[in-house]
Design a protein that fits this description.
With 412 residues, the protein is an alpha+beta fold. Helices cover 30% and strands 26% of the residues. It is built from 13 helices and 22 strands. A 13-stranded mixed sheet has the order 3-2-1-4-5-8-6-7-9-10-11-14-13. The chain has a four-stranded mixed sheet with strand order 12-20-19-15, with no helix packed on it. Strand 13 and strand 14 form a beta hairpin. Helix 7 runs parallel beside helix 8. The radius of gyration is 24 Å and the shape is elongated. The C terminus is likely disordered.
Length: 412
């Protein structure tokens, strides 16, 4: 591990994310990347709880636990790891213990215990001891990779009667999604010796490879038979984006001739939607997606357009609506009980954007191959222009040179 480099970054006071982006060192990425926190950031911990973090390493997950719990005890066998954790996480509710977990004597119990990334050869005894340290109704959170059946056996032998399994993708180290159902490689298990597991979430997706001000998570929850979709800010800076998303509903009402926006309301800092089941639209529905109430008019460049798309030379003759849903991908529209809904309206631009560019995006993300764009009235020059606009839009969302798209660095 590049301990000296990690320590130097933390002691310098530099922005950790900027330091990770500037480095090609995989150890720095693994131990310091903010993407690591995705594994636990979406979990709703009960209030005034205590957490025992086993195998805390350099504190990649310790910080998010300190934000969620009243008190966190973080244990790691490495003195070096604990020193780095202390440099990174200066929380008053954090206690760091250096030593082998099996040898440490605890005088209290914990509401939550996390075991993340522990080698399989250590799991059996660690789980067995962790079970004795859980408070009544307490929950064990176990994440790793390998033989999940073996992990289930260890949990059962330790007396855990209730489990719920999720699957981080691409893996538990840098999860960009959390899924239920079936998965491969990594696992995330919630286990209880008594009572039922707290988690009512069936899916989570992290838009974490965006600029901080656009970084949001989306999760699907189900409680008492009711499913909801909840979009939450992953950073302080993204709270404004979520508030703007919720207010977009009023803009979308009346925008389309035959499409209704899904309901949305703010709950705290989150935008909450009903979960709508149905069929997503197809290419055959393209005209419906772009059938607006407002008439088209000649496109004119504005300062806001330049801010996002740059000084792109748009030929004369392009048309635009005064306001448009730039993210008009077909999977953002759904037919349910004979009614068509727009289920995601995150990117509503209230300034002119060439409508043919937005249609190009819809076709592109529907998987239309380059040679087929001519069938929809696009010349090679059109495709080149609109591709450059899409690159500009993605850089507006993800940073210059896509600086925040970095998860692939962990893949060897």
């Amino acid at each position: 591990m590049s301990a000296d480099k990690i320590r130097a970054i933390l002691e310098s006071g530099a922005d950790i994310e900027d330091a990770v982006l500037a480095s090609d060192d995989k150890d720095i990425f693994y131990h310091l990347s903010p993407l690591r926190a995705n594994l636990l950031s979406w979990i709703d911990f009960k209030e005034d709880t205590s957490v025992l973090e086993i195998n805390s390493e350099c504190g990649a997950l310790t910080g998010i636990l300190c934000e969620k719990a009243k008190h966190v005890t973080a244990v790691d066998a490495s003195k070096e790891n604990c020193e780095i954790n202390a440099l990174r996480n200066k929380h008053e509710n954090l206690e760091l213990i250096t030593g082998e977990f099996k040898k440490i004597k605890f005088t209290n119990t914990f509401d939550y215990i996390t075991i993340v990334g522990l080698p399989e050869k250590l799991l059996k005894k660690t789980i067995a001891k962790a079970a004795t340290l859980l408070a009544p109704g307490g929950q064990l959170i176990l994440a790793g990779e390998g033989d999940i059946k073996q992990a289930d056996k260890y949990l059962a032998k330790a007396g855990f009667k209730e489990t719920k399994t999720c699957y981080p993708a691409p893996d538990y180290r840098i999860p960009l999604e959390i899924r239920t159902g079936r998965g491969e490689g990594s696992f995330l298990i919630f286990a209880k010796r008594d009572g039922t597991c707290d988690q009512a979430v069936s899916y989570v997706k992290f838009a974490c490879q965006r600029k901080p001000e656009f970084r949001v998570s989306t999760k699907i929850t189900e409680e008492n038979g009711t499913k909801r979709v909840i979009k939450s800010p992953m950073t302080e800076a993204a709270k404004e984006h979520i508030a703007r998303l919720a207010s977009n509903k009023d803009k979308v009402v009346g925008m389309y001739k035959g499409i209704t926006p899904a309901d949305c309301k703010l709950e705290g800092d989150s935008a909450v939607f009903p979960f709508i089941e149905g069929e997503i639209l197809t290419i055959e529905d393209l005209d419906k997606v772009f059938d607006y109430n407002e008439p088209l008019s000649r496109f004119e460049v504005t300062d806001r357009f330049r801010e996002i798309f740059g000084d792109i030379d748009v030929p004369e003759g392009e048309q635009a609506y005064p306001m448009i849903n730039v993210d008009s991908n077909l999977d953002n529209f759904m037919v349910s009980n004979g009614k068509t809904y727009c289920i995601d309206y995150e990117w509503i631009f209230d300034f002119p954007v060439p409508v043919r560019f937005v249609k190009y995006r819809t076709l592109f993300y529907a998987g239309i191959s380059p040679e087929k764009f001519a069938d929809f009235g696009y010349s090679d020059e059109d495709v080149k222009l609109f591709h450059s606009m899409e690159i500009a839009f993605q850089q507006y969302v993800s940073g210059d040179n896509f600086k925040y798209i970095m998860a692939s660095r962990l893949q060897s």
